[in-house]
Design goal:
This protein is α/β, with parallel strands linked by helices and 211 residues long. The protein contains four helices and ten strands; from the N terminus they run ββββαβαβαβαβββ. The protein has one domain: 3-Layer(bba) Sandwich (Glucose Oxidase, domain 1), CATH 3.50.30. Helices cover 13% and strands 27% of the residues. A seven-stranded mixed beta barrel has the order 4-8-7-6-5-9-10. A two-stranded antiparallel sheet has the order 2-3. Strand 5, helix 2 and strand 6 form a beta-alpha-beta unit.
Length: 211
């Protein structure tokens, strides 16, 4: 059976959206064949939370695990892309309870109006996020990974409680996905953050597979 593979990772490039205060993405060609070198070698300079990335528990919990210790079986497996494109406020428990999230779903990717913000040429603070009680709602239902289609799972200016509720319960957080053009429904998620020892996060390549 042929499989459809959809890349939901934001392309990494200079000038891309980053969280306010995070380092901008810079790519420098150190060795260039065009200049007579025998190969091309580049230097990458970017923050741990650039583009599509996974948050580690230590991002918001002191002395907790780094991204290299996020369980792989939380990052790979059946996932549901949930249609929240009609939602016009932050995703609290009431909003999440009204979405079509099948019972027993372990990996939830929230497709919200945020995906359209990737077309903007600047960071947009008005994105939708999951509130503290929304995070606890997900934890209570056994969700192991939650993803969202902009740079933070939590609302802008209110990051701490949502992150701590999820990370403290061992829920993996996938941020910065691009779900434009992705139909809601069931997929296989393959998410591979860079294995950076003790890091608070890492850029990731995230793929959805539909057979």
């Amino acid at each position: 059976m042929l499989a459809e593979i959809i890349d939901i990772s934001a392309p990494i490039h200079p000038g891309m959206h980053v969280w306010p205060g995070d380092p901008p993405v810079a790519i420098e060609r150190l060795s260039s064949m065009a200049d007579g070198a025998h190969d091309n070698v580049s230097r990458l300079d970017l923050g741990a939370h650039a583009g599509t990335h996974v948050d580690a528990p230590v991002h918001f919990i002191a002395d907790a695990a780094g991204v290299d210790r996020v369980p792989l079986d939380a990052l790979v497996g059946p996932a549901v892309v949930v249609d929240a494109t009609a939602v016009d406020r932050h995703l609290d428990a009431g909003v999440l309870g009204g979405l079509e999230i099948p019972e027993g779903t372990e990996r939830v990717l929230l497709k919200t109006p945020n995906s359209e913000l990737w077309a903007s040429d600047r960071f947009e603070a008005g994105f939708l996020g999951v509130t503290d009680d929304g995070a606890r709602w997900l934890v209570e239902r056994g969700v192991r990974l939650v993803g969202i289609d902009y740079l933070s799972i939590a609302p802008y200016g209110d990051s701490v409680s949502t992150h701590r509720a999820l990370l403290g319960a061992g829920v993996a957080i996938l941020e910065g996905t691009d779900l434009r053009g992705v139909e809601p429904g069931a997929y296989e998620l393959i998410c591979a953050p860079l294995r950076i020892v003790d890091a608070d996060g890492a850029p990731a390549r995230a793929l959805l597979v539909r057979r």
